[in-house]
Design brief:
Shape: elongated
Strand content: under 5%
Number of strands: 0
Length: about 280
């Protein structure tokens, strides 16, 4: 059983890195899309003479990206009722991520015997509580909202259940298996990272093995989830959005090249055997 968990864990890491690189590479190498392909609703394109407006620079776009990711800004303006639990959940998740980074770094370079056990346990416990509380409320709001059931696919309900189970698995590992002892947790992390005790990798205890199994499944799921869609959305925002085409520039050359390609789908207003340029004209 331990060998299976070990194989799944390291296999999921390799899979996560490989799948992520493939998806990012496909996104980076994607052609410049026409406006009607990537149009995202109300935008600057609806304004008169939008190309004469002051274009946001890289720093302002980066700031906007960070505000959206850290504070879930779209939900704040569009659905305040969902924003509160979503914000609580994401604060907990971000804090848990940083807590795991701290565990990894401190277990290698820090003095484990002199580690601040209460501080580390309190940090992890508060982060887990926030993520758990936000996840429970979000799940309840999702299943109790009749309108959202039309748009919310079954996988998203399962995702929130799995989030809650993963957090419960973490609580079991930290507070029951390790007895809330941060020194023991740091020693375990160090042994896993440095391969100091390979026996524990082959024959892991139930608590750590359960948590590692949950983490492995997340690594497999994330490259195909909506989480990566956030990256692709912002990559488009940085690369293409709100950039006016000027005569003879790189965008015009690319667009002319792509307009010569045939349309691969059909509709009442589209002729699939003709090129994009022929369909436009």
């Amino acid at each position: 059983m331990g060998s299976i968990v070990l194989f799944i864990f390291y296999g999921s890491i390799i899979f996560f890195i490989t799948a992520s690189l493939i998806r990012v590479k496909r996104c980076v190498n994607a052609p410049i899309h026409l406006n009607w392909e990537v149009y995202k609703g109300s935008s600057i394109y609806e304004q008169k003479d939008w190309w004469k407006k002051v274009k946001p620079n890289y720093n302002s776009k980066l700031l906007s990206l960070l505000l959206d990711i850290l504070f879930i800004r779209e939900f704040y303006y569009r659905n305040r009722r969902f924003w509160y639990p979503l914000f609580i959940f994401h604060i907990g998740i971000y804090s848990l991520f940083l807590w795991h980074v701290w565990l990894l770094i401190y277990s290698i370079v820090g003095n484990i015997d002199q580690a601040s056990g209460f501080f580390g346990w309190l940090w992890g416990s508060i982060s887990t509580f926030l993520a758990f509380l936000g996840g429970i409320i979000i799940f309840y709001l999702r299943i109790s909202n009749q309108e959202l059931r039309i748009y919310y696919t079954p996988i998203h309900y399962l995702k929130w259940i799995f989030v809650i189970l993963t957090l419960i698995g973490g609580i079991y590992a930290v507070d029951i298996h390790f007895g809330s002892n941060m020194s023991n947790i740091l020693k375990y992390v160090k042994e896993q990272v440095t391969f100091a005790d390979f026996e524990k990798k082959i024959h892991p205890s139930f608590g750590p093995a359960l948590h590692i199994f949950f983490a492995s499944l997340w690594l497999i799921y994330i490259p195909f989830s909506h989480i990566y869609q956030v990256f692709f959305r912002y990559y488009h925002y940085f690369r293409w959005d709100e950039i006016p085409k000027e005569r003879g520039d790189r965008i015009e050359k690319k667009v002319k090249e792509y307009l010569k390609k045939p349309v691969t789908w059909s509709a009442k207003h589209i002729h699939p055997r003709k090129t994009w340029k022929e369909n436009i004209l």
